[in-house]
Amino acid sequence: MAVLNSSDPLHASDEIDSLHENQQIAQTLDEIAQLLDDQKASEFRVRAYHAAAKTIRSLPTSVRVLVEHDGIEGLIALPSVGNSIANLVQQYLQTGRMSLLDRLRGESHAETLFSTVPGIGRELSHRIHEHLHIETLAELDAAAWEGRLERVPGIGRKRVQAIKDALAVKLTEGSTSQPGAVMDEGKAVPIKELLDIDEEYREKAIAGQLPKISPSKFNPKNIAWLPILHTERGGRHYTAMFSNTARAHELNTTHDWVVIFRDDAQSHGRWTVITSQFGKLQGCRIVRGREDECREHYTTHCNFHQPVAGQSPYPELPSMWEEGHGRITPN
Fold first, then answer.
1. In the chain, fewer beta carbons within 10 Å around the N or the C end?
2. What are the structural domains, with CATH classification, of the chain?
3. Is the separation of the CB atoms in 117 and 166 below 8 Å?
4. pLDDT: is 224 or 216 the higher one?
5. In whole angstroms, how far apart are CA 74 and each of 13, 51, 155, 182, 187?
């Protein structure tokens, strides 16, 4: 049973509201677990979210107060709540949503979320989402600090600084995390692992072996057409699905661009794998932003630079992905 720490009726009412928020957070985590189970994710991952929900539900004090006092580290220290789930809880406290739940439902509220930041209107919010494929304020903050935000048309250094300042107000409260520390898009995950996940996803999608979800965007008939894969590599949990962005629909690459998400207790990140159109890697699957590593990978593991006469220089790629698909690189 929850314990109220105040005899003051007004303060007691605030505590009741805070504890009710705990229940909402726990319910959201349980819903994530149920969707993961429905989509054939590992039992370990499903149990992890149910266990975290049980922890949050049984807390005698407010999660919000805990974060205000101890930062995100206070969440991570709770039983069954690791780094990834702690970040989701913090997202909920800041925005009232969890990006993972939106993703599992085939929804995206990123553009609406970004437009709440001073200096970012609806049009710019759309461009940020389309160019950077990010969904949360923490990821927007990371993009600003890492220089990726400046690559979006219409954003200069002054605006980036203004966005950094605005995000500092939104993200600093109740958090001791450093800017840009949330996303893992570096070399911690090897290129070979990402390409292997991409291959597993596309092969199973083609074979009709994956559950499908009904995305909320570009799907007026509400058809469940988007295959979703939950898989693991060495204890790292990944989700993969075709890109359902406006850019992908515009370029007819909704069955070529694959978005891979990592979401586990150690870290989380996001990568987009496409079929390259240009240069020596034309026709090869590559990870956006890590093209040099892809080139090194193919040079080391494949003979793509020495094709046999009359044979495709990329025999490791399914032929249907070399003929008429994915020939345009996203900007």
1. N
2. 9-104 (1.10.150.110), 110-172 (1.10.150.20), 191-321 (no CATH)
3. yes
4. 224
5. 24, 17, 35, 16, 28
